[in-house]
Write the structure tokens for this entry.
Amino acid sequence: MYTQSIDLPQDPGDLPRDPRPGARAASTAADARREADFEASIAADRKIEPQDWMPADYRKTLVRQISQHAHSEVVGMLPEGNWVTRAPSLKRKAILLAKVQDEGGHGLYLYSAAETLGTSRAEMVDALHAGKAKYSSIFNYPTRTWADVGAIGWLVDGAAIMNQIPLCRCSYGPYARAMIRVCKEESFHQRQGYDIMLTLARGTAEQKAMAQESLDRWWWPVVMMFGPPDSDSVHSGRTMAWGIKRVSNDALRQKFIDATVPQAELLGLTIPDPMLAWNAERGHYDHGPIDWDEFWRVVNGEGPCNRERLADRVAAHEKGAWVREAAMAHARKRAGAQSRAAA
Ligand code: FAQ
């Protein structure tokens, strides 16, 4: 989608310096002017586009966040993909198949947006497969029952939308624009998940118990998905100053909890947090302590499914090698035919 912008101007810091007297001072002045223009754009809430000058750290942090986001979408296909062959009806199977494909599409928009910053998709995918790049902690939990597909749609997509709506206003144009379509699709996913939960909650006692058991397992990992508390968030200060992140981890977490409690009440399900209580003074729900040790264990590779997820991703990539080769061969053949026709 954005690959026409891949030929980026090099960061001036990477270029050899002009050795002539006075040239160094001139280039330092030019750097300062570019930096001031960048800061003025951020302050005026103007979008930064791929061809614009940007500080190396801004570029680096965007590649980190967007590629991690892309990896999350792609790895996120695995837990639900696990249920495609076992969905309880043809209708549910068709819906789930379409949802999983949507997540793959989100990964592609996001890899394309990150490529505009000068890092190739192959490099990003290699970093994921080598275990150097992160993806969301939430996808390291197992999907044991059909209710888990409902819980993922309702809660995981619900949390993803909460986090991604502010990203539609991100200062980097290609990321912000990619998020608009992603959010529309995630919102549909959230409703399909809630619909599964509603059907189970209004079904037999056994089905309702399955929905409750799923909520019991997914609640805390979803609450953690927003990232560490603001006090421990290493990147928030800079990314918020740069207009990449607009709302902090804790504020988004609170917004999610406030929105989700009434939805659980409507389902007749109980959120597994005995300390959850409306605080009229704050105008928010108070919640119990979050097990941050568990979060960091999962982020650092020791969650219930980390190894399995990465191994499945690597295997899927390897099995898809012939598709990539065939697509490249087809593109070469078409380009050859077009240039022969033009000659
Ligand atoms: N999991 O300083 P902060 C989806 C890491 S998409 C793993 O607060 P930041 C769709 C963080 O990277 C879900 N690692 O970081 C779907 C950093 O480590 P680093 C993904 C995490 O960037 C639905 C360190 O901790 N969404 O669900 C997590 O300011 C259903 C310090 O943290 C996005 O990626 C975590 N949960 O804030 C698909 C949205 N949290 O990089 C299928 C875009 C933090 O220095 C089915 N990303 N870390 O090594 C963001 O908004 C931000 O990157 C945050 C983290 C909020 C995730």
